Amino acid sequence: MPAQAAGFDNIVVSATKGGEPQSEFPADTPVVYLSADLVDIPATSTITFSWISIDSHGVAPANYTIDKVDLHVGENTEADSQLSKPTAGWPVGTYRVDLSIDGTVADSAPFSIR
Q: Looking at the domain assignment, is residue 2 inside a domain?
């Protein structure tokens, strides 16, 4: 049986920390949370969560990086990140969170604001 590649599992985007997976959120959602299990990622690695606006109908450029969060893996077996609602509310559109290991995207989690 081949060894499993380093990566992420059980990726959840939700309106509450530890909540049920969601793919769509209303524009007044206070915070969008992401959590993921870390699978065979070396303790010396850095993981990055990049919050990206794919298409916000002109509010931001296409594929605009809203925020990035870097985390040192260490002994962690799970990680999470969150992004708070902008003051004027979330722009309607499509978004994703890219999950990277040492600078290389390993997975993505899409969601939309309606």
A: no
